[in-house]
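Tokens as discussed.
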């Protein structure tokens, strides 16, 4: 019987990166198996590149892609997680831009690598810990605004990179989970306010779409395209990183 090292999350394991390391097998929560399996390759990489060259002429989408690519760098650079939040009215292509940014890593379909923000704080941190170094993509942030007096506490909680300690009835302390990744959010309203604290402000890159601004013009065409072509760029990016002197460049 062949023996494999197993893992219950994505991201860096020393110099390897799951799920791109074939000698490490997933043996974690089955609730996240679908997401783990979504980090795969499908379609045509050259066609994806040509499409993204056109799309990246839009500065908002270029920032979403940059935040997505930045996620695996945070662990290596020893910096805190951060939030990129793009907000504006409906029909501006925010969600499609999120799908393009996540097509770097795998299947960007809603429910796969792009999630609705209709989840509890605990489920957010559990998902962040599972992704670990891959970006967390959350669509329609305003869905959860009734659960928070403001988003500052959510921002601080997510960007601390560690969940709350929990004590079992037996008196045993549950092992705390950690993550070092970027958070890509979209919504119809800002994530910070004028009275938000400096800690929250410093951990958020926030962009409001105004006037006729759009992230993606032809949303249907682009969303259908990235549903059929995805997952190549992330693996190629990870393979390039050992050749970079990351800290000196940073």
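Sequence:
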């Amino acid at each position: 019987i062949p023996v494999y090292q197993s893992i219950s999350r994505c991201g860096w394991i020393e110099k390897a990166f799951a799920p791109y390391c074939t000698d490490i097998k997933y043996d974690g929560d089955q609730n996240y198996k679908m997401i783990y399996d979504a980090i795969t390759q499908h379609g045509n990489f050259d066609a994806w590149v040509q499409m993204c060259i056109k799309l990246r002429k839009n500065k908002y989408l270029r920032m979403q892609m940059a935040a997505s690519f930045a996620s695996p760098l945070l662990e290596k650079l020893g910096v805190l997680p951060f939030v990129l939040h793009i907000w504006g009215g409906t029909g501006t292509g925010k969600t499609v831009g999120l799908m393009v940014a996540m097509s770097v890593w795998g299947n960007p379909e809603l429910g796969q690598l792009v999630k609705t923000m209709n989840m509890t704080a605990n489920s957010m941190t559990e998902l962040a810990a599972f992704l670990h170094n891959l970006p967390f993509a959350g669509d329609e942030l305003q869905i959860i605004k009734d659960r928070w007096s403001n988003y500052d506490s959510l921002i601080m909680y997510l960007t601390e990179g560690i969940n709350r300690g929990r004590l079992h009835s037996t008196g045993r302390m549950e092992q705390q989970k950690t993550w070092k990744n970027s958070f890509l959010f979209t919504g119809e309203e800002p994530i910070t306010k004028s009275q938000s604290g400096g800690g929250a402000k410093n951990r958020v890159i926030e962009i409001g779409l105004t006037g006729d601004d759009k992230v993606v013009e032809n949303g249907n065409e682009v969303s259908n395209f990235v549903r059929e072509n995805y997952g190549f760029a992330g693996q190629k990016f990870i393979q390039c990183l050992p050749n970079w002197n990351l800290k000196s460049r940073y």
